Amino acid sequence: MSQNLSQRTVALYQRDESLHTHTTRVQFVESVTNLSEADRALFKQAMDDDAIVVTTETIFYAQGGGQPCDTGTMHSETSENPATFLVSSVRNGSGGRILHLGQFRPSQKNTFFEGDSVFQVLDADRRETNSRIHTGGHVIGLAVRHLAESIPGITELKAQHYPDSAFVEFQGLIDGKHKDIIQAKAESFIQRAMPVKVYFWNEEELREKCVIVPAAVVISPGNLIRAVDIEGAGAYPCGGTHVVDTSRVGNLQVKKISRSKGISKISYTVSWPGSVDP
Questions:
Q1: What's residue 272's pLDDT?
Q2: With a threshold of 0.90, does the pTM exceed it?
Q3: In the chain, N or C terminus with fewer CB closer than 10 Å?
Q4: pLDDT for 2 beyond 60
């Protein structure tokens, strides 16, 4: 990829999840076919005529941590070169760059150029849905932790926060008979509208304040790590987007508890009252 990509992309959503629009500048535009092999592998469904746009900052969440990416648009603010870029996928690329995949409109001949001012617009409904599901996953994990007397010896392993496949996995066996008390505890957290706060902690603070710091969390000396705290329930290291308080999760339903080879998986769904969410 071009030498012009020396600057890391500033992920604005890490500190301000409320931003749904933002004006920034283009660092680089390239065909997806010209990406390095490692970066090209991030976009398995990409078409050869798709383009990659890298900007100085972005409000688009890059897929990761079990959460889908944001989608939306970027609009050129240069009158001499009107163009719209439809963002269909976002990934964390090499060198700290956030790669936006998509197509230009009205045609691929309409493009951005380095230094162009562009206006980013999120699909706000998609962001809200993904955030509710992600916070719902934290609610599930913390509900199980708060039931340690009834469900001992359980440790979170990983989670996925997709609308059609949301789950939290645990080391240890959770009997299906506990489904109702997990549901009740999760509902109690949601009904209490517990604030959801983002913090940046050093390693000592992270290990002191989080309920668990998974081995997969990379902690570089002197760096601060992002954590998400459901006040009164517990905190996890987390880079994903979340709602402002647990009441915004909506209706959370524990669907089933499955067990295999010492691992338990709690599958769940989230929906908003009156919606047709899954």
A1: 85
A2: yes
A3: C
A4: no
